[in-house]
Amino acid sequence: MIPLRDNIPTLRFAYVTYLLIALNALVFVFELTLDAAALNDLIGRFGYVPALVTGTVRSGEFDLSIMATLLTSTFLHGGWVHFGGNMLYLHIFGNNVEDSMGRLRFLVFYLLIGAAANIGQIIVAADSVVPGIGASGAIAGVLGAYLLLYPRAGVLVLVPIIFYVRLFTVPAFVVLVFWFVIQVFQGSLTLAAGEAGAAGVAFWVHVAGFVLGMALILLFRNRQLTGGKNTWL
Predict the structure, then answer these.
(1) Distances (CA, A) of 136 to 107, 163, 201
(2) Mean pLDDT throughout 123-134?
(3) What is the DSSP string of 74-142?
(4) What is the distance between the alpha carbons of residues 202 and 29, in angstroms, rounded to a whole number?
(5) By percentage, how much of the chain surpasses pLDDT 70?
(6) If one looks up domain 2-220 in CATH, what number appears?
(7) Would you give the DSSP letter of residue 18?
(8) How far, in Å, CA of 222 to CA of 19, rounded?
(9) How far apart are CA 149 and CA 232, in angstroms?
(10) pLDDT beyond 60 at 227
(11) Dist. CA 140–CA 146, nearest whole Å
(12) How far apart are CA 96 and CA 7, in angstroms?
C-alpha cells in the first residue's frame, strides 16, 4: 500500500517541508558523485554507530562529534528507494503537520525526533558497528503526528494486486496504523533472529519515531492553527 496524496489542504505554503526535501536531495546528489570508498567514508563519518554512541554515553564523556551523528545521519540515504520513499512520505504528510504547528515548531519537531528516534535502534543493537543513516525516524515522527491530527483524512493509495495495481482512497488511520504494525512486526523478526544490528532497515528507528511523534504533537501543535473537525486531539 503506497500513499500518493492526501485530501487535506494547507493554509500556508510548507516552506520547511520543502526545504528539508531539498536539503536531503542535495546531499543525496552529492552521495551519487562519490566513489564507493568515499561514500563509505562519508557514511562512517556522519552516520551514527550504535557502539560508539553507547561507548561515549557509558564513559560519561558524551563526545559531541559522536552525538552529533544522531542528527547528521538523518540527511544521508542508502539508495534511490530509501531516498525516494522517505521523501514521498515527507511530501504527502509533512506539509499538513507543518501547517498544524507553524514553521519553526515543525523544524524543531522534525530535527528533535530525527535524532531521538535513532536511539530506538541503539537500544536494541547497542554493540553494533554498522552505521545507521536515513530520515526515516524523523518522517516516522511526522506520520505519528499526522495520525492524531488527521486520522480521517482521505489518502489515495496504490495497491499492487498480483499483476495489477489498483487505486483506492482510504482513511489516513488505516494507512498509518498498517505502516506502524508492519514496522513492529518486521522489527520483532530481526530481534528474534538476532539480526537487529545487522545491515538493512532499522525498523526500531521507525517505531521509536512514530511513538515520539504521537507523544510530542501534544506539545508542539499550535491550537490556533490546527483545525478541529478531523483530529483526535
Answers:
(1) 15, 29, 10
(2) 91
(3) GG--SSHHHHHHHHHHHHHHHHHHHHHH-HHHHHHHHHHHHHHHHHHHHHH-TT--SPB--SHHHHHHH
(4) 23
(5) 93
(6) 1.20.1540.10
(7) H
(8) 21
(9) 6
(10) no
(11) 10
(12) 10
Look up residue 149 and give its three cell numbers: 491530527
The closest alpha carbon to 31, from 70, 67, 71, 80, belongs to 80
Per DSSP, helices labelled H in 6-74 are 15-32, 36-46, 50-59, 64-67, 69-72
Q: Dump pLDDT digits (tens) for 175-204.
A: 999 999 999 999 888 877 776 666 678 889
Q: For residue 159, list its beta bridge partners.
A: 166
Return the closest-CA partner of residue 195 out of 138, 143, 121: 121
Instruction: Identify the bridge partners of residue 160 per DSSP, sorted by sequence position.
Output: 165
| pLDDT at 61 (0 to 100) | 84
Mean pLDDT of 27-52: 96
Say if residues 208 and 120 touch (Cβ distance below 8 Å).
Answer: yes
3-state DSSP assignment of residue 147: helix
Please list the residues that pair with 101 across neighbouring strands. none
Q: How is the chain split into domains, by residue range?
A: 2-220
153-16-210 Cα angle (round to 5): 50
Which grid cell sits at 50?
A: 550504535
Could you tell me the pTM of the whole model?
0.91
Residue 116: closest CA among 98, 143, 141, 133: 141
**What are φ and ψ of residue 170, in 5° steps?**
-130, 160
* Residue 211 phi, psi (nearest 5): -65, -40
Q: What is the average per-residue pLDDT within 116-141?
A: 93
CA-based torsion, 79, 49, 187, 195: positive or negative: positive
**High-pLDDT (> 90) share of the chain, %:** 74
